Fold this protein.
Amino acid sequence: MKLRYRTVFLSDLHLGSSGSRAKDISRLLKRIDCDTLYLVGDIIDMWRLRSKWNWPAEHNDVVRRVLKMVKKDTRVIYIPGNHDEGARQYAGLEFGGVELLIKDVHLTADGRRLLVTHGDQFDLVVKHHPLLSSLGGIAYEWLMALNRLYNVGRMRLGFRYWSLSKFIKLKVKRACTFISRFEETLVKEAERMGVEGVVCGHIHKAEHRVESGIEYFNCGDWVESCTLVVEHDDGQMEVLDGIELLQQIRDAKHRHQGKHPKHGKRAKHGKHAPVIAGAGDVLDDDDDDLEPVEVDIREPLPIAR
């Protein structure tokens, strides 16, 4: 059972951090069929790994899933961010078929050119105040720990997941101002380059809007929002809820098996509903189809100081 897209953009997976939704990422990648996969930065959280090594099997499964997509002729482009900036020194090289680039210009099926960049280069705090940025990262980790505890309580009471951390961030005036300035800066950079849009990550806020004729897409993250940007075969693009996509596949499986699907909020797809191939396949959550990789990431990575 596969979801068919021309291009998929994922960012801010933060593998190596305790907050990464690695199991959900692996499940989603298993069910995606695309020509190109962009990994738009902060895929591996080298900041967290530097202070405390954390690489459970679920995180390794994501790496293996990506490498399997490469073997099946998906072009995978990895654009490092500030949390995995150590990989930037290898820009222009390939590792296991994965291309490393500082940034890219993606050409959509309908002829639009989109700048693809993580976006931290346009964040003045990251660029000029690295210590403050690092302290902010630690504070964010504490906020996410609080968020997890809060949602454990909600789920025990029968309520759905709700992001306390996102609510707090959006209620803070300075955070809202920062997000607005970040988006405006990326739009101006796209204008300067003469492209029609930009796809980025970094700020953990999924978004699609048009400003001054420039389309701005933010992939969101896989710590809180679990969102992604996709391009359909006709070139149209949208931001999707990854968890709701997985639920939609489960519902399709249950209908095929004659079971009553669990009802819940569906992902919004606009004019496009995802193309689901192989409706008779079983939606399992194991990774038995993954082959071992030659380099198993269980030892500390070389991290740029």
About this structure: The first strand starts at residue 2 and ends at 10. The domain at 2-277 is CATH 3.60.21.10 (Purple Acid Phosphatase; chain A, domain 2).
